[in-house]
Specification:
Mean pLDDT of chain B: 84
Distance between the termini of chain A: 91 Å
Largest sheet of chain A: 5 strands, antiparallel
Largest interface: A-B, 33 and 35 residues
Order of helices and strands of chain A: HHHEHEEEHEHH
Shape of chain B: globular
Largest sheet of chain B: 5 strands, parallel
Number of strands of chain B: 9
Oligomer: heterodimer
Strand content of chain A: 15-25%
Low-confidence stretches of chain A: 1-29, 170-178
Low-confidence stretches of chain B: 320-361
Number of strands of chain A: 5
Strand order of the largest sheet of chain A: 1-5-4-3-2
Structural class of chain B: alpha/beta
Distance between the termini of chain B: 54 Å
Number of helices of chain A: 7
Strand order of the largest sheet of chain B: 2-1-3-7-9
Number of helices of chain B: 15
Mean pLDDT of chain A: 76
Strand content of chain B: 5-15%
Radius of gyration of chain A: 25 Å
Helix content of chain B: 25-40%
Chain lengths: 178, 361
């Protein structure tokens, strides 16, 4: 018996709905179901311990049909974040809270709209991340301190450049109410 | 090239050059994924590297065509991979550096002295040994002398390209210069081979990154990282279902070629070759030789220049039992052949002996 018969891994698309036949008939069998169970386990872990998890999609033996089914099943949420990091990185919230779809692209000049509409660019890394926020969006403590220092400097400079409010005609508040 | 500042960490350098923490995290994440490391490894790599001083790298080029360096330093479009040059402190590379003559050699000697025991030596090109090694000399020294002296204080040696890894073209018969691979001259330092003619840029970058953060990666019997060289081209080839169905292109312009059938009969060496071409591909994942219509040359294997003609099929006798049993290799085969076992017999389909029979996939 061939390996594929011993370990059912394939999931076909239902011709009428375009969804995986597994989905159409209630998830069925195979790799798609395994991934969804893993996501569910990760979500449970996040809820109970706060532990974040990731699945590296490009290192899973998914067919293009299974990949499409997974995307359809997880759906779209409200948030979509684009990062310009030497190429686009897209963090897309799925319809399942705390389940994010993160795609990293090289800098090929392709923008997010083109990627969404035409699949013009191929992600060089792709993850499902189970977390409140994808880790690439988070700040580190020293970044916050640096940012605060920068903002304080700007405030200081703005304070030094303020016009003298005791001089006639320089009182902005009076002129605003005339 | 930037002069390495001894107190500056990788993170300091990246910040000073406007490369954000997120960009670097993305770079490490992508490379970790390429090496099939756990998802958390990218974050760990990024954190570790940012705290570390920029590692000194000395790049030596001997009997080579510069294709390997071109693969690493030129990209089809600007890519995150270019960040490797911000991570390392490339203290010597006679192809890229602005300095020349004595100043260039002084840069190499200074880097060795300042980083003794910690610097990485990257070598591309084979090393000639015939007639005292006179067939490759620079600064009055033979390649063999330069290699021996430079490697003395190195932490590790990375042989980039098939010439450095296995001797490559200079090593091919009759080998008039007595060319040898780097590993045959170095026995007291770890040597990592990254063969390919040239190697894929991401393979070079990923291996360097792994070494700098997690140490020497798992290597196969030829000293190649198994993360990139653990898979057989044939097992990952998208044309594999055609091989299984006995559909072969007979010439480069026949119906089979136009339909993208298996190139086995046109000399493809995929079944004997281990590399990442079929998965990572070239030029930002654009294509690889088979996808462009030409059989694999087997360029990441030892002695590939002397293994018979590039356009002669592999003799059936070379298909050993070991090669016939594939590791679960359906990943990437989009047509869903479903079989991970290499066909024991090559099925020759001759139009004049057997009516064409279309099998549904």
């Amino acid at each position: 018996m061939a390996m594929g018969e011993q370990i059912p891994l394939r999931d076909e698309l239902d011709s009428s709905s375009g969804l995986s036949t597994g989905l159409a008939s209630g998830l069925g069998k195979g790799g798609l179901k395994a991934i969804l169970f893993e996501i569910a386990t990760m979500l449970q872990r996040l809820a109970s311990t706060g532990e974040v998890s990731q699945i590296d999609l490009l290192n899973l033996p998914l067919t293009s049909k299974e990949y499409a089914s997974l995307k359809t099943l997880l759906g779209d949420g409200e948030a979509r974040i684009e990062l310009k990091l030497g190429g686009l990185t897209l963090c897309r919230e799925t319809a399942v809270p705390a389940v994010w779809w993160v795609e990293h692209f090289n800098d090929t000049g392709t923008n997010a709209e083109t990627i969404a509409e035409t699949n013009a660019a191929k992600a060089v890394a792709e993850f499902i991340e189970v977390a409140e926020v994808p880790h690439i969006l988070k700040y580190e403590a020293d970044e916050l301190q640096l940012g605060l220092a920068r903002l304080n400097r700007k405030l200081e400079m703005a304070g030094n450049n303020q016009p003298d409010n005791n001089q006639p005609g320089n009182n902005q508040e009076e002129s605003d109410h005339e | 090239m930037n002069k390495r500042k001894s107190q500056m960490t990788v993170g300091d350098f990246l910040d000073a050059h406007g490369i954000s923490r997120r960009s670097f995290l993305k770079f490490c994440t992508i490379n970790a994924s390429l090496m099939a490391l756990p998802p958390w490894a990218g974050q760990a790599m990024a954190e570790q590297l940012r705290q570390a001083p920029r590692p000194s790298v000395i790049y030596l080029s001997f009997q080579e065509c510069t294709g390997c360096l071109e693969s690493l330093s030129r990209s089809f479009s600007p890519s995150v991979e270019n960040l490797i040059f911000d991570v390392i402190s490339l203290d010597y590379d006679d192809t890229l550096m602005a300095a020349a003559g004595h100043q260039a050699e002084q840069a190499r000697e200074n880097a060795m002295k300042e980083n003794w025991g910690k610097y990485v030596v990257i070598v591309d090109g084979s090393v000639p040994t015939a007639d005292g090694g006179v067939y490759c000399t620079a600064a009055g020294k033979t390649a063999q002398q330069i290699l021996t002296e430079t490697v003395e204080g190195a932490a590790a040696v990375v042989a980039v390209g098939t010439c450095a890894s296995f001797g490559g073209l200079p090593y091919a018969s009759p080998n008039p210069t007595g060319a040898v691979p780097v590993s045959s001259l170095i026995s007291d330092k770890p040597v990592i081979n990254i063969p390919g003619c040239p190697p894929i840029a991401e393979v070079i970058t990923g291996t360097l990154l792994h070494f700098l953060t997690l140490g020497i990666p798992d290597l196969d019997e030829h000293g190649r990282p198994t993360a990139f060289y653990g898979n057989n081209i044939h097992d990952r080839c998208y044309r594999r279902p055609f091989y299984d169905q006995g559909k072969f292109a007979k010439t480069f312009d026949d119906e089979g070629a136009r339909n993208g059938w298996c190139l086995y009969e046109l000399g493809c060496k995929g079944p004997l070759t281990y590399n990442a071409c079929a998965t990572i591909k070239w030029n930002d994942g654009t294509s690889f030789p088979i996808e462009s219509g030409h059989g694999c040359l087997g360029c990441s294997e030892p002695n590939f220049w002397d293994k018979g003609g590039f356009y002669l099929p592999i003799p059936e006798s070379t298909f050993t039992d070991t090669q016939k049993i594939a590791a679960a290799a359906v990943a990437g085969v989009a047509l869903g052949a479903g079989s991970a076992v290499l066909s024991r017999l090559r099925r020759r389909k001759k139009l004049d002996e057997q009516p064409a029979k279309e099998e549904t996939s």
